[in-house]
Amino acid sequence: MESVTNAWVTLSSSRIAVTTGQRQVDSAQAAFAGTSCEELNGLRSTIETLNAEEELQSAQLQLVQSRYNVYVSHAALLAATGELSAQQIADNITVYDPEANFKHVRYLGFTPLQLVAAGVDRIGSAPPRGKFSPDLAGGNVPRPENPGQLAPAPGQAFMNRPLTPITKSELKLPNGKTGRCPLNDLRNR
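Structure (tokenized):
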């Protein structure tokens, strides 16, 4: 129950981190575009532009890490509840059946004397499995009283939204349009 609770809280916080991370990237992108334009006009120094670029890159890396954390924490929650399977991770996976494989290889390499000895061994041995105690069967396991609400999942388009390259940062103009710095930038960024 502790692992399920931890996975639940981690998934919820990871989902929130993606949303806030995207907002942080958007604001850092606008700040970098403005700072670089101001630097071209002589209002900012190069170090200020480099700092804005570093903040944008840091925000982008943090967003990618948050997206990764959502997938990992979702898989951890499924694993903690016992619902994780190979088909949920990737399509067209052949599931390994250990029971069928055991039946196939069970008597490979046995000699006739080993089969007779195994039969004699079973006569005096105890049954392989008794009844499960209530503790092992989950009878005395406490149930959570109030698990809390899970944060809403960011949409698939939101999770897969590509990051804008730093050199393609655009300004948001007062008229609602976006554009690059109006001056001709002869330097390569």
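Residues 2-40 form the longest helix (39 residues). The helical segments are 2-40, 46-81, 86-89, 98-105, 112-123, 156-159.
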